[in-house]
Amino acid sequence: MSQQITELAAREKARSITERLATLERPRTAWERFTHAFSNSSVTVLVVVIAVMWSIPTFGLFVASFRPPQLIASTGWWSGLVPPWHFTIENYQAVILQQGFGQAFLNSLIIAIPGTLLPIAVGSFAAYAFAWMKFPLRDFLFFLVVAMLVIPNQIALVPILTIFTSIGFTGQYWSVWIVHTAFGLPFAIFLLRNFFSALPKDLIESAHIDGASSWRIYWNLILPLSVPALASLAIFQFMWVWNDLLIALIFIGGGPKQPLTLAVANLVGSFGQGYQLLTAAAFISMALPLVVFFSLQRYFIRGILAGSVKG
Amino acid sequence: MEGISWSAWIWVGPALLLIGLFFIYPMIGTIVTSLESTDTLGNVTGFVGLKWYGKIFSDPSNLIVLRNNLLWLVVGTILTVGLGLIVAVLVDRVKIERVIKSALFVPMALSFVAAGVIWRFVYIYKPAGENQIGLLNAFLGLFHIPPQAWFVNEAINNFALIAIYVWMWTGFSMVILSAALKGIPDEIIEAAKMDGANRFTMFWRVMIPMIAPTLTVVTITMVINILKIFDVVYINTGGNFQTSVIGQAFYDQLFNFQNSGFGSAWAVVLTLVILPVMFINIRRIRAEEGLR
Q1: What are B222-256's pLDDT values in tens digits?
Q2: Which residue in the set B176, B271, B285 is minimally distant from A305, CB to CB?
Q3: Per residue in B169-186, pLDDT tens?
Q4: Of B1, B6, B12, which to mutate for an interface test with A (greatest number of A Cβ within 10 Å)?
Q5: B132: number of Cβ within 10 Å
Q6: What CA–CA distance (Å, rounded) separates A267 from A255?
C-alpha cells in the first residue's frame, strides 16, 4: 500500500496524460486548432478560478488579522484592501501578551516534539522486528496492528481517562505524550515495516554473517537507509499532533499547559463576538504548519499520501 | 532470518505493550462500560444492558445525530472524491499544475480548529439591513438575496459544515488521483486512441477503470475520516441547531452530561460502523503482501 503510494508520488513528475494525448491527436485544420487552444485556455481559466476560490477564505482571515478591532467588527475584510489602509499588529500583540498565546505556542511544541519522536522510536523498533526477525505469531500480531489503523480513538478514551484520572496523570504534558505515542504506533509500524522489508535482503544478511548485532544493523544500516520514510513519517506525525484537538481537550483540558488548538477553541467559546482576537490566534496556530508545508512540501505530500490509511 | 529469534520480543515488546494498554484493554473496557450506568464521577451504579443503545436508535435527537452522520458520509465523500477527480483531470491539462495543486492542498496542513475560524469569517451573519462583514452574505447581498444564518438555519447548517471539510480534503483526493492518472501506461492510452476513443469514452472506459484501485483507497480514507468527524462540528456549532454527529454526541455525553455509559455506547456504535471498512482494509493489505 504505502509502496504503491510512494510510487504514485514519484509519478507526479511524470508526463501528464494530456501531453501524451496531445501527441496523438494533433489538431489538423485551423478551426480545430482554434477550438483546441480555446478549450485548453478555458480549462486554465477554470482551474485558476477554482484555486483562487480555494485561497480566498485563508487570505481573508489573513487580511482581517491585521485590521483594527472596530473595523473588523463593522466592515468586511475586503474593504480593508482599499486605501486608506489601516493595518495594525495590535491583534497579534493582544493574543500573545494578554491571552497567553506565546505560552500556548510553546506548549504545542512541548507536546508535538516528543509526540513525534517517541512513536517513531518505538514504532521503528517493532517495524524492524516485524520486517527482519522470525518469532511466533508474527503475522497475526502485525495484522492486529494494521487492524488498529482505522479504529476510532474514541473507543479507547473513556477507560484511559478513567485510569489517568485515578492516578493523577491528567493535565500533564506526558499524559498526552504517552497517548499520542500509543495512537501513532499502528501507522508508524505499518509504514516503516513496509519500507524496512523492502530494503535489500543481501545487505542485511551479509551484515548478520559478519557478526553484526541486531542493534548495529538497526542503527547503522536500517535507519540510515530509511531516512526518506522516517522524514515523511515525522512530518506527518508532527502535523497530526500539532493539529490535534480531541486528545488535548480530554487529557489537558485548558489551563496553563493547553496547546494552540485548544487555546483557539476556547477563544471561540468565550469570545463569540471578539472576532479580532480569533483572527490573530488562528494565524499563530497556522504559522508553523504553513512553514512546514511550504518548505518540506515534497515530504509532506508523501507523508500524507502514505498516511491515507491512518485512522 | 534463520531460526526463531527470541530477542525479537524485546524489539516489539514496547509497541505491543502500548497497543495492548491503549487499544485492546480500553476497547474491552468501553464495551463493558456501554452496558452500565454510572454516576457523574464515573463510578458504576448498575448494569443496564442495551439501554444506551436503545436510546441511540429511538430518541429523536439521537436519530438526528445518526442522520447527520449519514448526510456527512454521503455528501462529504461524493464531493471530496468527485471534486478531487474533476480537478485532477482538469489540472492535468494546464501548465501551472503545481501552483494550482498547492492552492488546493494547503488547507490539509491546517487544523480543523484553524479551518473553523477561517470559515467563521466566511459565514458571519448580520441581520438584514446591517453591513454584512461575512464574505458569503456580502456576496448574496450583491444579488439582493437576504443574508443567511449559515450555522443556525437547520435547512443549510449541516451543508455549511460539510463545505468546510470539503475545502480541507478535496486537495488530498486531487493529489492522489492525479498521481494515479499519470501512472496509466502510455500503451493503453495509445491503444484506446487507435480504437477511436473520444475524450468521453477515454475518461469513463479507460481512465476510471485504470485508477479504480486508487479511487477505492481515497474513498475508504474519506469514509473513515468522515465517520469520525468531530472538530469541525465542535468548534463551529458545538452540535447545536441539529448539527451533532457521533463524535460530538460522544463528547457531550462524556463531558457535558458526565454519562460515561452513554458516551461509551456512542463510541462502540462508531467502531461498529467502521469495522467493515477495517476488514476491507486488511484484505486489501493482505492481497498486496501476497504480491511481493
Answers
A1: 998 899 999 899 888 999 999 999 999 999 998 88
A2: B176
A3: 999 899 889 888 888 888
A4: B12
A5: 20
A6: 13
Q: Does the CB of B127 have a partner CB in chain A at under 8 Å?
A: no
Q: What residues does B37 pair with on adjacent strands?
A: B46
Residue A144 and residue B176: Cβ atoms within 8 Å? no
> Cα–Cα distances in Å, from B266 out to A55, A100, A182, B234?
36, 35, 22, 16
- Grid coordinates representing A287? 504559522
With a cut of 90, say whether residue B156 has pLDDT above it.
yes
DSSP 8-class letter at A85? P
Rounded Cα distance, A194 and A1, in Å:
8
Q: Does B30 touch chain A (CB under 8 A)?
A: yes
Helix or strand or coil: residue B129?
Answer: coil
User: Which residue in A133, A279, A290 is closest to B8 by CB distance?
Assistant: A133
Rounded Cα distance, A116 and B191, in Å? 48
What is the DSSP annotation of A181-223? Answer: HHHHHHHHHHHHHHHHHTS-HHHHHHHHHTT--HHHIIIIIIH
Q: Give chain B's domains with CATH numbers.
A: 63-291 (1.10.3720.10)
Contacts of A184 by beta carbon, 8 Å cutoff, 6+ apart: A115, A119, A123, A237, A240, A241
ipTM for the assembly: 0.87
Q: Does residue A84 have a cis bond before it (omega within 30 degrees)?
A: yes
- Asked if residue A1 has pLDDT above 50, the reply is no
Cβ–Cβ contact A238 with B under 8 A: no
Chain B residue with minimum CA distance to A135 = B4
Quote the CA–CA distance of B166 and B40 in Å, as a whole number.
Answer: 37
Task: Test A155 with B108 for CB contact under 8 angstroms.
Answer: no
Of A3, A12, A17, A138, which to mutate for an interface test with B (greatest number of B Cβ within 10 Å)? Answer: A17
Contact residues, A window 119-178, toward B, CB-based 8 Å cutoff: 122-123, 125-126, 128-130, 132-136, 138, 141, 143-162, 165, 178
Contact of A2 with A190, CB cutoff 8 Å: yes
Scan for cell 455509559, then name that residue. Answer: B261
Q: Which amino acid is at A169?
A: F
**Domains of chain A: residue spans and CATH:** 2-90 (no CATH), 95-309 (1.10.3720.10)
